[in-house]
Known about the structure:
With 303 residues, the chain is an alpha/beta fold. The protein has helices at 11-22, 56-69, 120-123, 132-135, 151-161, 180-187, 282-302, and strands at 2-7, 27-31, 73-76, 79-85, 88-93, 98-106, 110-112, 128-129, 143-147, 166-170, 192-195, 198-205, 209-216, 222-226, 229-232, 236-238, 268-270.
Amino acid sequence: MYDIIVIGAGPAGLTAAIYAARAGKSVLILEKENFGGQITHSPKVENYPGFNEMSGNLFAERLIDQALLHGCEIELECVVDLKVDGSLKTVTAESGNVYESNAVIIASGSKHRHLGLEREDYFVGNGISYCAVCDGAFYAGKNVAIIGGGNTALQEAVMLSDICESVTLIQNLPFLTGEETLIEKLYLRDNVKFIFGSVVTSFIGEKHLEGLEIKKSATGAVSRLYVDGVFVAIGQEPENKPFAELIALNDNGYIIADESCDVGIPGVYVAGDCRTKAVRQIVTATGDGAVAAVNACRYIDSL
């Protein structure tokens, strides 16, 4: 029996665990695959306050070391169910193991939707990125492609067109689906090109991405586009399926919660990218982790 179980070992979950452990609570962290979360895929982190530059792996390692130093336990477990019976919270893992606590902080995160193409994972950090805000500066003065046509893709295209030699938007539909004001901005930029009605079918390159193979949906014609990097912007997938029957989700699958990180169930909180929020960055994830932990500790102290 633990005071708090934290589901997810990304920046939000690890920060929550550190805050809770420092408050004298017993903490168990459950992570299904990757201690440190998505940030470990980033070769450089340059937008976290207090650090000019560090790798995502180094940042994650420091968080994990800090959590362990304060007495947190960490288990590699895929959570499949959460049940609440008053102050008793029961977390079931895919392995069949069952864990109990007084409070739970869900920090399961979200993942960028992938294209599902061969060698896609290999090129992450070697030419493929899912966040222009995070990695765009690495491609200043270079040629890049963006896959997608919604608001995220258009916003990233506007940002990248300010620093890149050229930006090519690849959209599977014959039109863009984002806001008209963003579309107008892009059409006015000489270094932005558009490929409509087409899908990326494979990646070109050996150790580093060198380009893309693109198929025209209407004709099946295949062409090649050589770029220094590609940004995949086809949406996010929150990792909230195990909680869908217990906690309110919005239409996109995110847990509905405001800055208090309260999901509306006593003793259950949410932190980081898996909740409804306007900005998903490391700093907002760690902020959520602190808020969720403080509220969870107050809840336990009130029992």
